[in-house]
Specification:
Layout (H helix, E strand, L loop, with lengths): L12 E5 L3 H12 L3 E6 L10 H5 L3 E5 L5 H6 L7 E4 L4 H13 L5 E5 L3 H9 L3 E3 L1 H14 L1
Length: 147
């Protein structure tokens, strides 16, 4: 689900759970727009994908921990974030992390990667903002074929 109707009101404080290829790419794009990004991942090696300059300048702040853990989310700075994104490889972990951010920390904007289209539809109906490779690729393919 793309939120084109939301205005961009200036730099935001964003917490991303998952520093795989997707998480790192999103972090870099958000930092390029002037945002501050904390990235939480279970494995320190995952942060090798992040640009050294942005980390050294603390525009990207890596934190080792579990995105489904209340304690680790607090350490990663979830209190006061404008946007929370869970983009790990596992749908269940992403959904759990998104629900914790929504219900325990009252984050206003929560984005959750859900690659299973059936789960994605179900969680969108429950009010989560979801992104998924399958649905995005289908949308692009249909737009390309019908353009």
């Amino acid at each position: 689900m793309v939120l084109a109707d939301r205005p961009i009101l200036g730099p935001k404080h964003i917490l991303i759970v998952g520093s795989g290829d997707l998480g790192a790419a999103v972090a870099m794009a958000l930092v390029a727009q002037g945002n501050t990004v904390h990235v939480l991942d279970r494995t320190p090696e995952a942060f090798d994908r992040l640009p050294d300059g942005a980390v050294e300048e603390q525009r990207i702040i890596p934190v080792v921990g579990d995105g489904t853990s209340h304690h680790d989310l607090v350490r990663a700075g979830i209190r006061g974030v404008d946007v929370f994104m869970s983009v790990m490889r596992n749908d269940s972990d992403n959904i759990l992390a998104a629900q914790v951010a929504t219900h325990e920390f009252n984050v206003d904007v929560v984005v959750c990667r859900v690659d299973d289209p059936d789960l994605q539809n179900m969680y969108e109906e429950m009010g989560l903002i979801t992104i998924g490779a399958t649905s995005l690729l289908v949308e692009v393919a249909v737009q390309t074929a019908t353009a």
